[in-house]
Backbone:
């Protein structure tokens, strides 16, 4: 015969029935030679087996302090804690998967999030993943329904699906160098009337872009043979007063006269640039001598990280 747990028994019988059954056992206890005989007599009237009614009586005695054991309140608290731990473990597993799948900085596009849900919905379910990633479950289910039945898509989505292969074909046919402007002009010349913003949006969605003119500037060229600079502040960029800690860096800026390099020093406490220097080259003296470009500064930092 199948045995039900205490929680399942509570779900099958209402609290009023449980209370009435226990009260009947306690009231008629003296009319029978033993407690078990009382339970066997009353259980059929309640509609349960004698062992179930015996468990209710024992639990009542625990709740009343007449027997050692786990009370109903403690049992409910343990059940809630176990459910919470299970949910946290599942959320932790989802976050581990998401950390390898999604970008780490800005929030990824909705299409990327929906693709992640598509891949892992069979393992973790839609609702838990949407809760962890902060996605509206209704929005994802609408997306899944449109994916199953393309006829549910809106007019814009249907046109996007028709235009995307054409944009990819034009981009491939021109050696993958055309940007949004040239692809747009090419499609209109071929008779496909489409807005430039639409071409740009769809190219960005599928990861297409034109060739960009200009060279790539590298301000940091690692030299493995050279010793690394000392970390004087142990990566703790904090200051309690002005001029206690300065940090320096340099970057590049595109101008009409070409690339210019700007070196600067920032006061960690004030979070302001205290001195700077501009040069057309990345020479060593350009960086090392920039701290003397403004002699009006007062005070000196305790540490300077070049």
Residues:
């Amino acid at each position: 015969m199948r045995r039900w747990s205490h929680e399942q028994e509570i779900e099958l019988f209402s609290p009023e029935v449980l209370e009435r059954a226990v009260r009947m056992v306690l009231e008629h206890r003296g009319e029978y030679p033993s407690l078990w005989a009382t339970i066997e007599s009353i259980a059929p009237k309640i509609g349960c087996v004698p062992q179930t009614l015996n468990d209710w009586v024992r639990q009542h005695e625990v709740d009343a302090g007449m027997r050692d054991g786990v009370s109903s309140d403690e049992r409910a608290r343990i059940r809630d804690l176990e459910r919470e731990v299970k949910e946290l473990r599942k959320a932790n597993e989802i976050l581990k998967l998401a950390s390898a799948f999604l970008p780490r900085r800005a929030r990824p596009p909705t299409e990327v999030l929906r693709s992640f849900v598509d891949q892992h919905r069979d393992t973790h379910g839609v609702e838990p993943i949407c809760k962890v990633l902060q996605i509206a479950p209704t929005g994802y289910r609408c997306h899944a329904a449109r994916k199953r039945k393309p006829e549910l898509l809106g007019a814009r989505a249907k046109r996007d699906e028709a235009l995307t292969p054409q944009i990819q074909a034009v981009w491939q046919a021109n050696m993958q160098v055309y940007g949004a402007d040239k692809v747009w002009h090419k499609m209109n010349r071929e008779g496909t009337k489409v807005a430039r913003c639409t071409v740009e949006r769809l190219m960005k969605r599928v990861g297409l872009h034109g060739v960009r003119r200009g060279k790539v500037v590298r301000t940091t060229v690692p030299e493995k043979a050279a010793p690394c600079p000392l970390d004087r502040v142990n990566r703790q960029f904090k200051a309690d007063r002005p001029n206690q800690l300065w940090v320096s860096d340099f970057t590049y800026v595109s101008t009409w006269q070409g690339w210019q390099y700007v070196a600067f020093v920032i006061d960690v406490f004030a979070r302001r640039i205290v001195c700077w220097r501009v040069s057309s080259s990345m020479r060593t003296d350009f960086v090392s001598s920039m701290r003397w470009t403004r002699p009006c500064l007062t005070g000196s930092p305790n540490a300077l990280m070049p």
Q: What stands out?
A: The chain has a mean pLDDT of 82. The two ends are 78 Å apart (CA to CA). The CA atoms of residues 130 and 137 lie 6 Å apart. Residues 72-101 form the longest helix (30 residues).
